[in-house]
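INTERNAL AUDIT FORM
Audit reference: QA-55
Scope: verify that the stored structure record matches its stored sequence.
Auditor: D.O.
Record contents follow.
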Amino acid sequence: MSARRYRFGPLEERGLVGPLSARQVAVVGFAALLALVAMYAMRSWSGMLVAVALLAGGGAAIYVPLSGHTIEEWAPIALRWVARSADQKRGYRSGSPTAGARVAASGELICEGSLPPAMADLAMLEAPYGGDSVGVLYDPKRGTYTAALAVRAGAFGLLDGSEQERKLDAWGSVLASLARDGSPVCRLQWIERTLPGRGDEHAAYFQAERDRSVPLDSGLVSSYIELIETAAPASQEHEILLALQIDERRGGRDLRRLGGGAQAGCELVLREAENLAEHLSIAEVVVHGLMRPNRFGEAIRNAFDPYGRAGRGRAAIGGAGEGVDPARMGPQADHESWSSYRTDSAEHVTAWVSSWPRTDVGPAFLTPLLMQTTALRTVSVCIEPVPHSAAVRRAEAERTAEIAEEMQRERQGFMTSARVRRRQESAARREEELADGHAEMRLAGYVGAHGRDKEEAERFFAEVEHCAALARLELERLYGEQEAAFYNLLPLGWGLQ
């Protein structure tokens, strides 16, 4: 058993006035303005009652929860939902099937692409790398370049406690290397997901290794073939992806030194990916390599159409080429409902990790979620390395603010609650850890369940939610935002503001 325990700090809450956000201040201010207008307009006890009711309503709008959100938090979600209602009824339909294809001078078949609105600005660049090429996803709106790596971490859950701690220390060193001052890296995202098995691996192995002296029509061989056919639909494969993203603003100096433009962006992100791969190998994480453009496109396409994966695999074996053309890595069709998101062969339900473990946990605390579920699911964590100098300034400012707030609370005779004490302890611990040279990371986690239909997706989500509870995670289903939430499960580096 591991003796070391790990602690997560409370959820980051930045207020404009004390604990109140800018939107909450606006709601309370508007309610107070209406209350003043009512008092001056009516000039009676009834005006006073209306004013009190308006103030009470403003307070309830920012404090009283309704299905996990306050009215003030539900309002923008509901407004966006209503504004998109016409598009939701129609949904997205890809133009690729009717766009045809062009034949280049070299004889290569070029398919016309069509991507959904959320991905319309993305461009898959083909960057030379050694004797091959690598896919780099360029987002001109955000000014980012993203490269993806396929990795394998080994059987972490089967190791003893000391070995797990050693591997976690090595992973911490990998993250710390990205938080150096001047680093162009703005996001590191890891994705662990299950995909339906292609169904032909066991059959191919059986065909290659079977005893040829035993005829196919024998009872022994027939029963084995029947077993393979029965197990194929239920088989799953685990896949781990890492998406490394650089930002044009953070890497401005390096980009100018490399000549600027898309070529410099690709060169810089590949350089950082090489450094990451080297650190991962030291941490004993097996890196299969950077993804080529078609493999990158396939990784995204598999998320939209997981149950069509087997058919695409057979097409590749038949000569249609490996992977998926990045121009067609999006869905053929989609439709968003209030509680789920439909694309091609699957219904998706996505939730946000609203609370990480509140108690100290061991190194393998995620095992129930990652290894003890048979549901088709995706776990994505997007990490932002905070430059050390910026992290120190923020920690010192937060510590000063906590001390000032505590002094004010003592002067006014207010009691310090357990939640406030936990926040103060976290601020003090964070300042000490940064002084000791540790790195700071911002992170956001998302979990998705995927089924062939809505009923199966709901059943899978219930199973995933139970496993998350065993891992001491609290999931919050993102009603009214299922499409946007689903994109946080793709290797795009999205999910953090």
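Auditor finding: record pair retrieved intact. The first strand starts at residue 65 and ends at 66.
Action required: none
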